[in-house]
Specification:
Radius of gyration: 21 Å
Protein name: Glutamyl-tRNA(Gln) amidotransferase subunit A
Distance between the termini: 21 Å
Strand order of the largest sheet: 1-3-2-4-6-5-10-11-9-7-8
CATH class of one domain: Alpha Beta
EC number: 6.3.5.7
CATH topology of one domain: Amidase signature (AS) enzymes
CATH architecture of one domain: Alpha-Beta Complex
CATH superfamily of one domain: Amidase signature (AS) domain
Largest sheet: 11 strands, mixed
GO cellular component, one term: glutamyl-tRNA(Gln) amidotransferase complex
Number of strands: 11
InterPro entries: Amidase, Amidase_CS, Amidase_dom, AS_sf, GatA
Family: Belongs to the amidase family. GatA subfamily.
Length: about 500
């Protein structure tokens, strides 16, 4: 019999509905698994007592016929989401032991629908990173390993804890945030499904800000259907977020398995980078063939300003981060390092509280916003951003329903393998994902193949604004053709 924590979220939901097991039993299975997997460092706060109390309440509602859409399903929460009464750090020392007095809208909607909170998941500091190595609470270790090699691998970032926990059966699903690929890249690295919805589809209230015009919440799950179930609860209008869109939320699960016959899928020629990993290129072509076999039409398209996306992103995002992170000064909350006067206290607190990558991005952002460089860098990057969005608009105007591309330029790499002395090497991990955030579009990463070293590889589907349903139907075709990618070697339990 499959262990309860290895059921998909959909299977667990069905088992609870049929009274095959209780929510408490399901939660106990996850709590036990979490205790055996601490070497992965996926969780930074475990809330076992709270989870079991929530599960007991879920069992009461199931018994009385008042079950919510996620009743009794154990979920992990990225540490960028404020959780009332539970420590929230954003992976940074500067927040210290900060305990929010309020709940983020996204997590409150999960609890409203009956989900059970297992704890807070590790992430790159303030979501700035592509490997989960910048967290002040230590790197997350991927549950995957290269064939014949025990070297620890990164799970991707910044939502590395969420991706690793879902892949390692430490939660039925998890929340993530995506500013430049921080859901889709780790999903690809860990053989899980991750969707970044359209900007404005999920409320940002209560999510610790990195770059406000780019940040968007989304779910991690083990299957496309599981991701659809989670997104339905996470999405929705919120009067507390001025960027939230007042638009009805469909039942995304209805789109899973829908016919894709007649859908037009674009293959952007600009994504065929010189020196692209042959394994990635081969998987991309195979994915296109799977969609053709399902009745979709695959066409070549051009997104001419793609080559400017990465430099534009690494101007816009640090500029917004420089502004957002100015609030961490040691005065109102978090860590305070004393000084001889208030200015020195600010300097000491921020120097001690922020890690090297966060300091680097704050300094870049401050520089491009400064009087002498604002027009030369920031204004120009915003103009490029408009052109990138226009590229997608033009393609969609030609009848293209979605764009198919790789999610990452490589499989997962080892912890410490990328040089932190050269940050550009790490920034290149985002090359296929940042355009989606700059244009505010939805994108989903779905497992589609394996590397020669038996590591998962992911394909990305990019859709029209607020047409996540199309992405779920197309992603299901890929999942059906490629199969699921479960971690089978539970080496961390040895």
């Amino acid at each position: 019999m499959t262990a309860l924590n290895q059921l998909t979220l959909t299977e667990a939901r069905e088992g609870l509905a049929k009274r095959e097991f209780t929510a408490v039993e399901l939660t106990e299975s996850y709590v036990s698994a979490m205790g055996e997997a601490r070497t992965l460092n996926a969780y930074v706060v475990e809330t076992a007592e709270k989870a079991l109390a929530m599960a007991a309440k879920s069992d009461e509602r199931i018994q009385s016929g008042e079950a919510g859409k996620l009743e009794g399903l154990p979920i992990g929460v990225k540490d960028m989401f404020c959780t009332e009464g539970v420590r929230t750090t954003a992976g940074s020392n500067i927040l210290g032991e900060f305990v929010p007095p309020y709940e983020s809208t996204v997590t409150s909607q999960l609890w409203r629908d009956g989900a059970v909170m297992l704890g807070k998941l590790n992430n790159d500091e303030f979501a700035m990173g592509s490997s989960n190595e910048t967290s002040a609470l230590g790197p997350v270790v991927s549950p995957w390993r290269r064939e014949g090699d025990s070297a620890p691998l990164v799970p991707g970032g910044s939502s590395g804890g969420s991706a690793a926990a879902v892949a390692a059966y430490l939660c039925a699903g998890a929340t993530g945030t995506d500013t430049g690929g921080s859901i889709r890249q780790p999903a690809a690295f860990t053989g899980t499904v991750g969707i970044k919805p359209t900007y404005g589809r999920c409320s940002r209230f209560g999510i610790i800000a990195y770059a406000s015009s780019l940040d968007q919440a989304g779910p991690f799950a083990r299957t496309v259907n599981d991701a659809a179930v989670l997104l339905r609860s996470m999405a929705g209008y919120d009067v507390k977020d001025s960027t939230s869109v007042n638009r009805a939320v469909p039942d995304y699960e209805d789109a899973v398995g829908a016919s894709v016959k007649g859908k037009k899928i674009g293959i952007p020629r600009e994504y065929r980078l010189e020196g692209l990993d042959p394994e990635i290129a081969g998987m991309w072509e195979e994915g296109a063939q799977w969609l053709r076999d399902a009745g979709a039409e695959v066409v070549d398209i051009s997104l001419p300003h793609t080559k400017y996306a990465l430099p534009a992103y690494y101007i816009v995002a640090p500029a917004e981060a420089s502004s957002n992170l100015a609030r961490y000064d040691g005065v109102r909350y978090g860590v305070r390092v004393p000084g001889r006067d208030v200015v020195e206290m600010y300097e000491n607190t921020r120097a001690a509280g922020f890690g090297p990558e966060v300091r680097r991005r704050i300094m870049i952002g401050t520089y491009v916003l400064s009087a002498g460089y604002y027009d030369a860098y920031y204004v120009k990057a915003q103009k490029v951003r408009t052109l990138i969005k226009r590229d997608f608009d033009d393609v969609f105007a030609l009848g293209v329903d979605a764009v198919l591309a790789p999610a990452t330029p490589s499989p997962a790499f080892g912890i410490g393998e990328k040089s932190h002395a050269d940050p550009v090497e790490m920034y290149l991990q985002d090359i296929f994902t940042v355009t989606v955030n700059l244009a505010g579009l939805p994108g989903i990463s779905v497992p589609a193949g394996f590397s020669g070293k038996n590591l998962p590889l992911g394909l990305q589907l990019i859709g029209r604004p607020f047409e996540e349903e199309t992405l779920f139907s197309l992603a299901q075709v890929i999942e059906d053709a490629a199969g699921r990618f479960p971690v089978e070697d539970l080496w961390w339990k040895a």
